[in-house]
Amino acid sequence: MTGRIHSIQTFSAVDGPGLRCVVFLQGCPLRCLYCHNPDTHDVHQGEEKTVDEVMEEVLRCQPYHGRRGGLTLSGGEPLLQPGFAAGLFARCRRFAVASALDTSGCLGGPAVRRAVELVDLVLLDVKHTDADRYRELVGGGRADAVFGLDRVKEFLALLDELKKPFWARQVVVPGWNDSEADADALADVLGPHKTLQRVELLPFRDLGRWKYERLGRTFALADTPEADPQRVAQLEDRVKRRLGLAAGSQ
Ligand code: SF4
Questions:
Q1: What share of the chain is helix, strand, coil (3-state, %, to 5)?
Q2: What predicted TM-score, i.e. pTM, was given to this entire model?
Q3: How far is the CA of 63 from the centre of ligand 1 (A)?
Q4: Residue boundaries of the structural domains of the chain
Q5: How many whole angstroms from 104 Cα to the centroid of ligand 1?
Q6: Which residues, in sequence order, are CB contacts of 91 under 8 Å at separation 6+?
Q7: Per-residue confidence in pLDDT tens, the chain, 250 aa
Q8: Of the candidates 243, 201, 202, 101, which has an alpha carbon nearest to the alpha carbon of residue 159?
Q9: CATH fold of the domain at 2-243
């Protein structure tokens, strides 16, 4: 089994519990306005590797990552290659390596389900909670984008059904989702899902602009200011309080 890999980062402290080896898979069906990895979008780019080759690298790092750390699959959208993701997660189980999946939750079907069954923890990026704004945000500004919030809700239902632990994340973008009402709406969407363990709001930062320039593409949020981290922390506390999670922790 082979997959297309964008890159591998052997030490990350921000992609799940503990220290992780993060494998970025190539390809993404979304075009989020704030995406700072536009070089992961094209499914034809990247390098082809086998499950064994990737796992070899993960296992090489594992002594430094400990029991809490492990492998996180990110992207791009890792569930665009669900068979490869499932193969890696199955191998993680065999070698007692903790696994995590960083996904937008926009894809479904039996192969996606199998990958989610096998992973230990899902990091779900709920990009917006208003259906129209969601479509526009993930569709590169197009209000008629194919992927809608309904897909994320179906993914949340799958997490419920599989009793899969998950963290919810959202990038806070000024003028898009930085109001108290946006925070409350996020808490309302997440509230019914009992396996939610943690909420992380991340400030929008203008990190990927140079990549767009290099690719000859326009960065749609070039005129949008970066989010104020203090404001984002306040909104995160608000979401957590509403959900009964400890505010100010994490
Ligand atoms: S889901 Fe959005 S942010 Fe993530 S790689 Fe795809 S376009 Fe970029």
A1: 40, 20, 40
A2: 0.96
A3: 30
A4: 2-243
A5: 8
A6: 51, 55, 97
A7: 899 999 999 999 999 999 999 999 999 999 999 999 999 999 999 999 999 999 999 999 999 988 899 999 999 999 999 999 999 999 999 999 999 999 999 999 999 999 999 999 999 999 999 999 999 999 987 766 778 999 999 999 999 999 999 999 999 999 999 999 999 999 999 999 999 999 999 999 988 888 998 999 999 999 999 999 999 999 999 999 999 997 765 5
A8: 101
A9: TIM Barrel (3.20.20)
